[in-house]
Amino acid sequence: MPISALPQSTVRFLGSSVVITKPCDVVKELLDNAIDAGASFVEIAISPNYLDTIRVRDDGQGIDIEDFDALGKRTHTSKLRAFDELGSRARETLGFRGEALAAMNCLATITVTTRTVKDVVATRLQLKPKIGGVDNKQPVSAPVGTTVQITKLFETLPARKQYSLKNSAKYIQSTKDLLKACALARPDLRLSFKVLGEATHCWSYAPVCAAGVKEAALQLFGTTLANNCVHVSRNSACDQTTSPQLNQQLPEDFILEALIPKPGFEVRAVKGKGFYLSIDSRPISSHDAMAKKIMAIYKPYLNQAAGTGEHCASIPNPFVQLNIRCPPDSYDRRASNQAPGNNKGSNSRPRECAYTIVRTTLHTERNLVSKIEDMQNC
Ligand SMILES: Nc1ncnc2c1ncn2[C@@H]1O[C@H](COP(=O)(O)OP(=O)(O)O)[C@@H](O)[C@H]1O
Ligand SMILES: [Mg+2]
Q1: What is the number of the ligand 1 atom nearest to the C-alpha of 99?
Q2: Closest among 141, 56, 60 to 100, alpha carbons compared
Q3: Degrees to nearest 5, angle at CA 350 with 345 and 356
């Protein structure tokens, strides 16, 4: 779809805009855009202070020349035409408000290098500060895909710049955590991260052919963890043993895919590795209230399953990876104007969205709890 302005009525329904308060918010938004563009590889490079340069390169479909003038303009998106489409589109894309590039363009200088399969050469363009659209452009040599470079973030906001500079180490760690969660949620996506000029921060995830979450866990955490976990995938109708293919989702089905410690697991193998929750492959923060609640459900199971007889409630941060796949059209347009798990907007937004999916799409929290319990019992 071409990039165009959302109708004002849709903008009003969608309500909030994208807020960039930390440099890692920029990486999150650019990573989402790369995934939405169908990338199989995303490379992130930042300057050591995380503000001078943020560069995200992908091998996605690129941006059409006709769309250049719409880039960085508020409410301009290629992912949604009108509010009515939200029920179906929200599940397919990670963003649909057309606000992220516009928000960044008010806080930094944006250069986009992009090429689609139709283009003989790539184009590098600088966006007009604050208003979006093309300031200047030139042909350059680059492969198909898009590189978005953000420079001088928060230059016009001295207090936020100072605060971010002080916390750059923390934000670099948050970015690595985000990428790890992304690799577990989308094990077929190749990811790399580097801090320019500092070899110590290099991180990468390169999936083997047709990688699943177990292969991702093996690469990210090592064989000890992978050998102590089992991958389970259950249809929401757990007793529906005659259900055709688990991966063939029926209209009402939720599918739970989990990599969880297997019965008799070694406590030392899973402790400290963390809880990874995603909904339709969108990572949800482990600090999110829904994630905490689900973890609380798992703790008694872990107690029973531990081979050592050790009380697992005392295991710090045990490994559990869970992805909930929702049926098409299950996103409630009225209650949730944003895709669940989409960590955009104010801090309360992801929590609201997580509960929205529990309440309105899984019907009740109890329903989700029982589905997870069923999955453990089956
Ligand atoms: N990496 C990318 N590859 C291809 N298109 C992109 C990329 N980043 C941004 N775009 C285009 O720019 C538009 C605006 O992006 P953004 O401001 O993040 O809003 P949204 O993702 O909500 O549409 C997107 O809809 C998409 O068409
Ligand atoms: Mg976006």
Answers
A1: 17
A2: 56
A3: 125
Alpha carbons 17 and 160: distance in angstroms, whole number? 19
Q: What atom of ligand 1 comes closest to residue 100's alpha carbon?
A: 17
DSSP 8-state assignment for residue 81: S
Q: Is the dihedral of CA 219, 225, 228, 232 positive or negative?
A: negative
Tokens at 47, concatenated? 């300057």
pTM confidence score: 0.86
Closest-CA residue, ligand 1 atom 20, reads 98
| Beta-bridge mates of residue 190 | 41
| Ligand 1, atom 27: closest residue by C-alpha | 78
Domains of the chain by start residue, with CATH: 4-205 (3.30.565.10), 213-377 (3.30.230)
Tens digit of each residue's pLDDT (9 = 90 or more) over 20-76? 999 999 999 999 999 999 999 999 999 999 999 999 999 999 999 999 999 999 989
Residue where the block lists tokens 């609201």: 352
pLDDT of the residue at 317: 84
CB 234 less than 6 A from any atom of ligand 1: no
Ligand 2 center to 161 CA (angstroms): 23
